[in-house]
Design goal:
This protein is mainly beta. Helix content is 13%, strand content 37%. Strands 1-2-3-4 form a four-stranded antiparallel β-sheet. It is globular, with a radius of gyration of 12 Å.
Length: 75
C-alpha cells in the first residue's frame, strides 16, 4: 500500500527519470522518489492545465530496474 503522503512527497521531491511527451493520454512523466522508511516509489503523472493527473503509483520491482531504480533493467 502506498500512502497519499508518500505520493505527495514523490511528486514534490522526486526526480523525473522518464519523460513521455508523445503519450496517447498526453504528455506524462515517471518520477522516482522515496516514501516511508526510504522505500523507492515510482509515480506516473501528467500535468494538465488546471490540475496534475496521477496516473499510477507503484513500488518498483528490483528485478525490473537498476539498483538505484532509475533505469529499466536490460533483459
Amino acid at each position: 500500500m502506498i500512502r497519499r503522503t508518500e505520493v505527495r512527497r514523490v511528486i514534490s521531491e522526486g526526480e523525473v527519470i522518464e519523460d513521455y511527451p508523445g503519450d496517447a493520454r498526453g504528455h506524462s512523466c515517471l518520477i522516482l522518489g522515496y516514501g516511508d522508511r526510504e522505500r523507492p516509489i515510482h509515480v506516473v503523472w501528467a500535468p494538465r492545465e488546471d490540475y496534475l493527473a496521477i496516473i499510477t503509483a507503484y513500488l518498483p520491482d528490483a528485478h525490473e530496474w537498476s539498483s538505484d531504480f532509475r533505469k529499466r533493467a536490460k533483459k
